[in-house]
Amino acid sequence: MENTMSFGEILEAADQLSLEEQETLAEILHWRVLEQRRNELAEDIREAQEEFRAGHSRPATPDDLMAEILS
Description:
Blueprint: H1 7-15, H2 19-53, H3 62-70
């Protein structure tokens, strides 16, 4: 059985930590979020490269993209 906590419960638990522990927790969470964003970006890049290799996309300049958006 998985024990999950609600966001509010997590905040309440964090309030029980010392200020130093709260700062450490905030720093750890910050770095974890950055790592997850990096992983998502890397996956997006891999997917885009695969689409390009498969011929589902083509190179475009910023002017090409703006012309397409505005048309």
